[in-house]
TrEMBL record:
One example of a Gene Ontology biological process annotation: regulation of DNA-templated transcription
Ranges where the Arc-like DNA binding domain occurs: 5-41
Domain of life: Bacteria
Alphabetical list of InterPro entries matching this protein: Arc_DNA-bd_dom (IPR005569), Arc_rbn_hlx_hlx (IPR013321), Ribbon_hlx_hlx (IPR010985)
Protein name as annotated: Arc-like DNA binding domain-containing protein
UniProt-recorded Gene Ontology molecular function terms: DNA binding
Record Gene3D superfamilies: Met repressor-like
Amino acid sequence: MAGLNVRFTDEELDSLRERAEAEGRSMQSFVHDAVVKAINEHARLFNEAADHVLAVSEELNRRLA
């Protein structure tokens, strides 16, 4: 399994540690899941935007075809 080193400020690490502890999880698990969630959210937002553009421009695309 590949690894990745990410640098955080002391304040950021404290916040991550507090959130992970509040959820009863390790920092590694908490950060991993947060990154995966952010990637998935980005993909979801992109897909929503693309669907919106396609819907809004459907008539124009039909006339140009």
